[in-house]
């Protein structure tokens, strides 16, 4: 991927973080009392109920993907400025991609397990 396209995706994921983060914070802090949203009982916005609601679980998945891409792309940018060289940049790109995928896979696993509870 070209650097210009990656930079554009970085901006888009930043906006995505703001939107999905606002949705997440609204479900936790604004739509129900905080104590009810942190409980595990049958309250509509309790922890398990949020994971069982497909729209809220999808917003958490989107937040996970946006944060992983945005954060790991920032690390990739910092590391690419430390040293220049094709081999070094290729290793950095592969390592950061693998780490981001591992975080997304592990986070998705968590969302799926909580959804099935």
TrEMBL record:
Residues annotated as transmembrane: 12-34, 54-75, 87-107
Species assigned in the record: Caldiarchaeum subterraneum
A molecular function GO annotation: metal ion binding
Keyword field: Heme, Iron, Membrane, Metal-binding, Transmembrane, Transmembrane helix
Keyword Ligase on entry: no
InterPro entries per UniProt: SQR/QFR_C/D, SuccDH_FuR_B_TM-su
Signal peptide from the UniProt entry: none
Record-given protein name: Succinate dehydrogenase
Localization: Membrane
Domain of life from the UniProt record: Archaea
Residue runs in coiled coils: none
GO cellular component: membrane
